[in-house]
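Fold this sequence, please.
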Amino acid sequence: MATRASDQLRSAYQRAWWSLVLRGLLGIAVGVIILWRPLDSIAAFALVIAIWALISGIVQIVHAFDLRGLFSQWWAMLISGIVGVGFGVAALYYYPSLSLTFAVAWTIWWLLFTGGVAIYIAFQERRYGLPWGWTMTFGAVSVAAAVLAAVYPGVTLATIMGLVAGYSIVAGIVLLVGAYKLSAAKDAIAAGFHSARPV
């Protein structure tokens, strides 16, 4: 019984360890490639946006027809899927300009939205006598960043790619550290199994 449990543990460990190591190395490689070949990475990023929109739209259309008899608002998902497919096809046709424009526009909208919400919250905090300075500062900085993102779209794209590269490298390192920790934990558990065996 102990041998079977030990074998199962060893098999699970090997799968988890290799998964962490491969994902970690892939993450670091993606980050380094983005920093090494930024223009090619931006082109690949545009292609990913187009393909993602196309596949997501197709999946939504299929789900809409699946839910037609169960969900009365299934047509909303259908319309969303059609829009997604349409955008994906258009993004492939107008590659890479449409995808990159979408990325910049989405970033601007996100900064404006979060900034507007923060400013609204700051006014509410001030109304109720709560500290509101930092919230207002965050909102103002977000709105200013949205304006700068609209004025300098090239810098916005470079920033997006830099963030993606940084995230990939940090995530890859974290996964490799996780693989190392898992290896140490496996050794400790294996030692526990050996000590638990009857003499």
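The CA atoms of residues 65 and 95 lie 30 Å apart. Helices lie at 2-36, 38-66, 74-93, 97-127, 133-151, 153-196.
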